[in-house]
Amino acid sequence: MITLDTIRKPVEADLQAFDEFVARQFTAEGDLLDEMLRYALSSRGKGIRPTLVMLSAAMNAPQETERLGLRVSLAAMLVEMIHVASLIHDDVIDESSERRGRASVNARWQSHKAVLLGDFILARNMNIGMSSGQYDIVAHVCSSLTALCEGEIFQSDCAEKGTMTRQSYLDIIRKKTASLLGTSASVGALAVRAPHERVVLMRNFGEALGMAFQIQDDILDYSPAAHTGKPLNNDLREGKITLPLLAVLDRAGEERRAELLALLARCREEETAVEQLRTTVEREGGLAAAAEVMQGYLKHALDLLSSYEDSPFRTALANLCAYVAERDR
Ligand code: FPP
Ligand code: MG
């Protein structure tokens, strides 16, 4: 099993510099805001996005350098803090009480304060970005912000109207998750001033990785043995249709489909319905079918890497692809 520690190893010092950069830059005035900010930053999660920025920067750097430098730390900070803010807002939207094994910001301080904390993080992020004078990096990262919002709105519209299809699901996850992973990979290349075609290639790599990442997230929502720090079957309880259920619905006849959708509607209130739908999706091959789609994206990501020479950074990015498929957290 590939660990994140192994993947981070070739850029360990740069990730350390990035952590120090964030701690220095992200400060807030006022006791409550400061406490909330510390809370949000103390459990940032796996750090996939900064790792991706660093590895992409290192692999695309014109020559081997001891340290990647401030432009790369700034790029990593911009994407990571957008991610942090978006999850704080996402937990408000999903009315989720847990994140990474502890109370979500909204559960601990109420939703209106959580919205404001997310806003503060975004505002501070832009502030730091603009004061740095590295406008190409700021513009590049900002171009992915709208996609996140579009993805979330489209997702809630499809859920409310009952119009989720495989195509809308793929559009949604491309926008809400894959776009920011794509930006993480491309901004890494941009930060070391790689040629435009390399920046584009890295975006495609990060997007394919991001599609796989979100599909695995949706599979783990159905897995009792997972360690995500989120409640099991949160998606079903929210009435959210993701790829494992879609795969089963796609294969079902009209009557069976209606039955399954009625069961999903009961999931908001009844735990027995949640468990029944979870076992149905597993028994009817929904998880395996979703995993197959995920493997297709990972294969595409790996193919894109093959145009780079062998290096510890390319190996780490290939390992990141394997990690996304194997992860249980
Ligand atoms: C998690 O999805 C949510 C996202 C990846 C995107 C969230 C985006 C917004 C709330 C739009 C606002 C954007 C900004 C920049 C503030 P999920 O609910 O499927 O995952 P989960 O199970 O981890 O909650
Ligand atoms: Mg959520």
In short:
The protein has 329 residues and is mostly helical.
Please give a handful of descriptors for the protein shown:
single chain; 329 residues; mainly alpha; Farnesyl Diphosphate Synthase; 17 helices; 2 strands; globular; binds farnesyl diphosphate; binds magnesium ion
Q: Which structural class do you get from the secondary structure elements?
A: mainly alpha
CATH class: Mainly Alpha
In N-to-C order, the SSE pattern is HHHHHEEHHHHHHHHHHHH
Cα distance spanning the termini: 13 Å
Proportion of beta-strand residues: under 5%
Number-wise, the strands total: 2
The number of distinct structural domains comes to 1
- CA-atom Rg in angstroms: 20 Å
User: Which molecules are bound besides the chains?
Assistant: farnesyl diphosphate, magnesium ion
Q: Summarize the biggest pleated sheet.
A: 2 strands, antiparallel
* Global morphology: globular
DSSP helix count?
17
CATH topology: Farnesyl Diphosphate Synthase
Query: What is the arithmetic mean of pLDDT?
Result: 93
Q: Any idea what the CATH superfamily is called?
A: Farnesyl Diphosphate Synthase
The second-level CATH architecture is: Orthogonal Bundle
For the largest sheet, list the strands in their spatial order: 1-2
Report low-confidence residues grouped into runs of 5 or more: none
Which percent bin holds the helix content? Answer: over 70%
Overview of this protein structure:
This protein is mainly alpha-helical. The protein has one domain (4-326): Farnesyl Diphosphate Synthase. Helices cover 74% and strands 1% of the residues. It has 17 helices and 2 strands. It has helices at residues 4-8, 12-25, 31-42, 48-60, 70-93, 105-109, 111-132, 135-142, 145-161, 166-191, 196-220, 234-237, 243-251, 254-266, 271-283, 286-305, 312-326; strands at residues 98-99, 102-103. Strands 1-2 form a two-stranded antiparallel ribbon. The longest helix has 26 residues, at 166-191. The radius of gyration is 20 Å and the shape is globular. The mean pLDDT is 93. It binds farnesyl diphosphate and magnesium ion.
